[in-house]
Amino acid sequence: MSRLQQTGAVRHRTATVIGALLAIAAMFFGAVGASAAPAHATAATIGSAPATASTSLSGKTFVIGTDTTFAPFEFRDAGGDLTGIDMDIIQEIAKKQGFAVEIKSLGFNAALQALSSNQVDGVIAGMSITEPRKQIYDFSDPYFESGVQMAVAKSNSDIKGYEDLKGKTVTAKTGSEGETFAKSIADKYGFTVKSLDQSATMYELVKSGNAVAVFDDYPVLAYGISQNNGLKAVTEKEKGGSYGFAVNKGQNPELLQAFNTGLGELKSTGKYQEILDKYLKDPTQATPSSFWDLLVNSFPALMKGLGNTVLVTAISFAIAMLIGLFMGFLKISTSVLLRGIATTFVSVFRGTPLLVWAFFFYFGVPQLTGQPIDIWVAGVLTLSLNSGAYITEIVRGSIQSVDPGQLEASRSLGLGYAKSMQKVVVPQAFKIMTPSLINQLIIMLKDSSLLLAIGFAELLYQGQQIYAGNFRITETLLIVAVLYFVVIMLLTKLANVADKRFNK
Prior knowledge:
Elements: H1 3-28, H2 53-56, E1 61-66, E2 75-76, E3 82-83, H3 85-97, E4 100-105, H4 108-116, E5 122-123, H5 131-134, E6 137-139, E7 144-153, E8 169-173, H6 177-189, E9 192-196, H7 199-207, E10 213-217, H8 218-226, E11 231-233, E12 238-243, E13 246-248, H9 253-269, H10 271-280, H11 291-331, H12 336-350, H13 354-369, H14 375-401, H15 404-412, H16 417-447, H17 459-470, H18 473-502
Parallel strand pairs: 1-4, 1-5, 8-9, 8-10
Antiparallel strand pairs: 2-3, 6-13, 7-10, 7-11, 7-12
Helix pairs in contact: 1-14, 3-9, 11-12, 11-14, 11-17, 11-18, 12-14, 13-14, 14-16, 15-16, 16-18, 17-18
């Protein structure tokens, strides 16, 4: 792609996000409370009677949610492409059944929230079929029979079975079969369960000594051990449940039927076993790669994440500046009503966590409006409104820091209030607020990493995807930290140069 094409693509994405933000404002005044339609549906297809997979699904695209860190079922390879057992199965079934899939890598809990809010049409994420879940979702035929194993650090020779866990802490993945099993025997053997969201971080917890053992699905453990994750299995596989593909209760029956039909075909042709063997057959110890190899292999994916980080920060900061300037002037207004509006805005967005708004905009608003929201729009809304509240106070404080005599002198020379503010007060206030605005921009860039919770593919998210597959957490996070440091230092120096020239 040429530089001109790249610039055009960035402008197009920026225009799309800004346009969508304006559309969001209209949504809030629209049909609030309307039931959300499936992510793939159009006005012509909502409510239509299902037909057979061969006719009704041809040419359709379904949005499928999945986990981010559940190797070997879903993880990213060195080039940043999503791969794994689940990904191969759903892609093969889609190809055979004549429909297309768009994969959203969100995280297990976020994927289920996205399904409930109809941001996705289905979820495939190593999801165990349980009776409570059957009350909420419709499941496909089982596509994998799982089980649970316990593993400890390679250097640990004290823990050989469940009876050695008394008084100890173990870890398991939130919402997983491993967590359910561990909690079911915790009282019997006298140990405590600490739940985490990712397999890779669970393994690090065990290796660091903060937990003595991990309970995880046996294929995940087997794959991790084959990738030199520093653990060893010490128990036999416990009988587990079955994994299934899920859709919302009563929705997308044709998609579910197509999955079942396709799964049956994969098994009958031997393609299903071929997929399993690709990731699970005879796992052997992989030859550790060097740090340089890790850097070279992961660099393209990290650069993509860094580009998204910089772009979402730039768009959000521009919008936050507009919000902050507008609300800042309202805060110094003589009108009690206008001051009250600005004060309420600042109190709400400074007094609530940024993550709450990320989840609200991406998962909550679609349930209220019946319209899905692009992840870029949700990210920009979250960052711009949060930072806009802080910039409001920066603007207010800077304007009030200008000597009141400046305004009085300007008015005495015959200039009106608006002209005096424009020509005399605001230029001086802008000089005062510049350092604080630079700090706020840097804070916003770092805060963008929190958007990984909704699956936004920023820098830290890409790093998470990489170490989920290779289990080299420390080295991967070191690379991510260096990239953040370099970008922030360059941004700081650039902003300081601009500040010096402006204040000459």
